[in-house]
Amino acid sequence: LVGYGPRPGSVARRPRRSATVRPGPQEGDTAPIQPMPAPARPGSQQGDTAPIQSQQGDTAPIQSQQASTLPPAIPLAKPPVRKLARDLGVDLYAVVPSGADGVITREDVQAHLRGVPTAAPAAPNVTGVRREPIRGVRKATAAAMVASAFTAPHVTEFLTLDVTETMALRARLRATPQFADVKLTPLAFVAKAMCLAARRTPEVNTHWDEAAGEIVFYERVQLGIAAATPRGLIVPKVRDADTLSLHELAAALSELTATAREGKTPPADLVGGTITITNVGVFGVDTGTPILNPGEAAILAVGSIKQAPWVVEGSLAVRTVCQLALSFDHRLVDGEQGSRFLADVGSLLEDPGVAVTF
């Protein structure tokens, strides 16, 4: 070997602690090539090894057995695909790749999941257990939520706002003859604000058509209202909600929720939504991170309305406040659009007079 080892006057590098330092040939030396000794046989003494001879008498190199014991190559997959596989409990070593150069795609993981049934963990051997079959609304809701959570990239933004003026307007309208025949709830004001805000940000009222490679923009708002029923959570729709007045919205919401609680919602009213409201405030909850209904671009969670200290023109006052949480599909709605939509909804609820500018 020529040029091996440190040159005279050069700086020697410290070997790793685990490395074994062996004296090497010096510059100008010739290193003889020795035949490789065969592994020692059981019972032989150290040093009693001999070169392995081939049938022709030549010295034959030993074939390394290391290759047969090496683990398989690491599956090629992007970080989001690895996260999806980890969340779904899928072993990437068992997935057949379809991407270029053997890269595993999201579709490969989902296809593997559909084709390979996952063994359920054994239930703990305890007493006092009640089992309930997964069927009907609960089964459909579970399938829809899983499909949405692992298909649409969710983003959630939050906004706390002062709704004192809106609640005062509600009280005044309820005292008028025009609203004597309907139940005017805060949800009606939220629904109206969403329909108005969607005019300035139409991206929240869209659909991602994967097969066609297109974004579908809807002209009308088919407003879904999440409703808890004895059968489970359903989302009936208010058709063409953006064309309705506040009075008409209030009447539609009252009829929709009453029908849902009685379990009489027709199947046609459960499909074809474009945007949804979920009112978690009725349970005393401040806010949440709602999951999109499959095929929709946005969903708004409305928290409880309550009194809280608030700074008004530099002074502390007790005001009626509420918190909103907007989840949206980041493929359809970017951060600027989602923030603008949520801010518009907030401004309409803080000052209902702003509605004349939309």
How would you characterize the overall build of this protein?
The chain has 358 residues and is of the alpha/beta class. Among the domains are: 79-112, Dihydrolipoamide Transferase (Irregular); 151-357, Chloramphenicol acetyltransferase-like domain (Chloramphenicol Acetyltransferase, 2-Layer Sandwich). The chain is built from eight helices and 13 strands. The protein has helices spanning 66-69, 79-88, 106-115, 136-149, 164-174, 186-200, 246-261, 335-350, and strands spanning 76-77, 103-104, 154-162, 206-209, 214-217, 223-225, 227-229, 232-234, 237-238, 275-279, 298-302, 306-312, 315-329. Strands 3, 6, 9, 10, 11, 12 and 13 form a seven-stranded mixed sheet that branches. The longest helix has 16 residues, at 246-261. It starts with 65 loop residues before the first helix and ends in an 8-residue tail after the last helix.
